[in-house]
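Budget justification note: compute hours in this period were largely spent on complex prediction jobs such as the one shown. Inputs:
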Amino acid sequence: KQEVTQIPAALSVPEGENLVLNCSFTDSAIYNLQWFRQDPGKGLTSLLLIQSSQREQTSGRLNASLDKSSGRSTLYIAASQPGDSATYLCAAHFGNEKLTFGTGTRLTIIP
Amino acid sequence: DAGITQSPRYKITETGRQVTLMCHQTWSHSYMFWYRQDLGHGLRLIYYSAAADITDKGEVPDGYVVSRSKTENFPLTLESATRSQTSVYFCASSGTGDYGYTFGSGTRLTVV
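Corresponding output:
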């Protein structure tokens, strides 16, 4: 069964620190992996999309990596800000048209 | 405006009633999806569509019906609403190629 796991479920970090969110998946035949952000009561906002042929993608203070051989992706957030507080979801596309989601990491940035 | 829109934003309905949630996208994306999000279960796929007139079941399709007569619209109907269908429903679309998903803002449905 193709599964996506995110650990920890919650993370608190002081403002200004760099941090890494983890995502693991069970099938190395991944097509792409997408990171989303979800604010309370809101929809999902796409942050970064990494194709299977890529190793990483960057957008501003965010950098996402993909290692198919180890079944892992990481989302690196530099110089964290209180506005980064949200739930971060990773989702894997295994080539069957459907995304498989992790259960998310709830991030709190402490001012 | 370009994008993916869902309506209504909030809905309260009674058990046994039929209710339809609407989803409209302006990109002519081939793929459209319906997910529900519940505490403890995360996002679960209900139905998806690869093109107009092509739909397929996801992980939790029971009690739901979809149709896709036009590429841009993908309505989700609860034929006889139950309390267990109280949830937040998200519609998403994806084009061919990079398969990146874009989500709507969601519909919060309460069945009383």
